Inverse folding.
């Protein structure tokens, strides 16, 4: 058991945990986006999707606890690594430097990460932890995105999420050992494609809903 604790608290262990939890979040984003696309099928289709989701009962509760655990590990480990790098400033550049060099994504990871946490808290307060006795998810969407400020916040937030993912995804694969010079450009390219899909896919929803509201 000691070896497990030692591995997980070592620098590489923390990076591994960041990679695994980050990749799980990318999976969540993909599933969440696919589900949200039902909005384009209209109110009934979107509410049907939400109903199906809630009908999963205990499975969805388990998934939610899983998400909370992943978030806590990702955030605490990320902050620890960030503070460690700050302390070791002279070697900071070397520890951050990666096969792809510095990009806007890699240079801003801690800041985009913190902004994503703030967005997710706001998002959960709007859509998840809200009394739905006299309303439903579609109505909340329409009410939220009939306000220009909310549309703007969501668009900025998903662009920030896309920037975070554009670096995080390939960097996670690299940490897990997928860093062959031949395949790295492909993995980096696919990560950027995924980030664009996340940005455009999520970002267009508030615009669309504001137009039909
Ligand atoms: C336009 C974009 C988005 C829309 C319309 C949207 C919509 C929703 C809705 C309706 C729910 C509540 C589902 C329920 O009733 O249980 C939800 C939950 C959630 N969303 Fe989003 N979402 C968007 C973007 C995002 C983004 C970018 C993230 C992450 C960065 C995110 C993270 C979450 C999380 C963590 C939950 C809670 C999941 C759960 O409790 O099962 N969402 N979203």
């Amino acid at each position: 058991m000691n070896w497990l604790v030692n591995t997980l608290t070592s620098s590489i262990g923390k990076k591994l945990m960041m990679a695994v939890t980050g990749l799980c979040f990318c999976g969540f984003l993909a599933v969440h986006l696919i589900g949200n696309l039902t909005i384009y099928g209209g109110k009934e289709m979107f509410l049907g999707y939400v109903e199906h989701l809630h009908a999963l009962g205990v499975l969805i509760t388990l998934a939610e606890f899983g998400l909370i655990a992943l978030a806590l590990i990702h955030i605490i480990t990320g902050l620890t690594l960030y503070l460690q790098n700050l302390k070791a400033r002279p070697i900071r550049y070397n520890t951050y430097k990666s096969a792809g060099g510095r990009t806007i994504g890699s240079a801003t990871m801690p800041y985009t990460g913190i902004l994503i946490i703030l967005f997710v808290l706001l998002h959960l307060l709007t859509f998840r932890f809200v009394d739905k006795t006299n309303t439903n998810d579609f109505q909340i969407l329409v009410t939220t995105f009939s306000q220009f400020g909310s549309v703007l916040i969501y668009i900025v937030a998903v662009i920030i999420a896309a920037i975070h993912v554009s670096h995080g995804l390939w960097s996670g694969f690299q940490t897990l050992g997928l860093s062959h010079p031949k395949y790295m450009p492909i993995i980096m390219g696919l990560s950027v494609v995924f980030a664009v899909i996340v940005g455009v896919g999520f970002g267009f929803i508030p615009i669309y809903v504001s137009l039909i509201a």
About this structure: Residues 2-212 form a domain with the 3 helical TM bundles of succinate and fumarate reductases fold (CATH 1.20.1300.10). The radius of gyration is 19 Å. Residues 32, 36, 50, 64, 67, 116, 120, 123-124, 127-128, 137, 141, 154, 158, 161, 202, 205-206 surround protoporphyrin IX containing FE (CB under 6 Å).
